[in-house]
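ingest -> validate -> predict -> emit
validate: passed (alphabet ok, no gaps, 246 aa)
predict: started
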Amino acid sequence: MHTAIIMDGNGRWASRRLLNREAGHRAGAQAVDRIVRAAAAAGISTLTLYAFSSDNWHRPAREVQALLGLLRRHLLLQSDRCLAESIRVSVIGRRERLDAALIGAIDDCERTTSAGERMHLRIAIDYSSRRSLIEAGALTGPRAEPGEFLAALARIDHSPPSPEVDLLIRTGGEKRLSDFLLWECAYAELVFVDCLWPDFDNTEFTRALEEFGRRERRFGRVSPDVSGGLAGRGRLGADRPVAVGR
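emit:
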């Protein structure tokens, strides 16, 4: 199961507490630790987190530098923990605009955790799904087979090929994809929660997983009560059936 999360609400969390936005990003980093552990414990095979979009460069320079510095420190601190818990870390997105210290932290973390098999943790930094799709299309041409296109997309994103997203969670109350995993989310179940990201905890994560379990996943087919089949079951495999919704 591939779960993706748009981690929204750090700035609003800080503003409501009369703190600067950097404090909200620090609190958000603690939420990342909680949810990575919770996802691994829940048996999630791939977890993709939207940490910094290509459009985030338009934010104030002080906030951008603070956020990128926090990402570098987080990667450095988490390498050993992810190694111990067999979690593989990959960073997707552009790298040419990142500073040398952050690129070094990315390379070290990816190399240290490359053998992890329990869960694949992907962190999107300077990421734009539209850019990735355009560049992958340019590499493969209009007659590319799906497998060829997906391989090109993985190269563009600096990550091994990943399964399509099963569940997309967005915190913070907004209801949009914000240029995140547009191809991979073609048949994702979308769960939007009002909780701001720094307050997102194991309870909120479990509620999102339970909501996913209530969804009927048809992938363009008809409901089981019409076809007599198990329409919602195919994508996750016969050993992990999807609960049919109400």
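Residues 229-246 have pLDDT under 50 and may be disordered.
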